[in-house]
Design a protein that fits this description.
0% strand, 99 residues, rod-shaped
């Protein structure tokens, strides 16, 4: 009778360890998915910002070639580009904080 009790206690301990390992494994899988999502979003953000940056650069060149005296629109675009850069910095800061 005592041998059955000892076996039952070891079996219960073994099942507890297996359950704990399973829980840790599930957390690791979830954490890995989160890191993949962050990396994907970072890449997507980089691509979108590059497209926006290229469009703004083309527009600035176009304004500059149209009229050298059109300083107001160029200043406006530079300010918009600086605002975009600040937003990107904030978003990347949020992504880094999520790491």
């Amino acid at each position: 009778m005592s041998q059955i009790r000892i076996i039952a206690e070891y079996l219960q301990l073994f099942l507890g360890v297996v359950t704990f390992i399973g829980i840790v494994y599930q957390f690791a899988k979830i954490e890995h998915k989160i890191y993949l999502a962050i990396d994907k979003n970072r890449d997507d953000l980089w691509e979108r910002c590059t497209v926006i940056e290229n469009k703004l650069a083309l527009h600035i060149v176009e304004c500059d070639t149209r009229a050298k005296t059109d300083k107001y629109s160029i200043k406006y675009l530079v300010v918009r580009l600086q605002n975009l850069e600040e937003k990107v910095d904030l978003m990347l800061g949020e992504s880094n904080n999520a790491d």
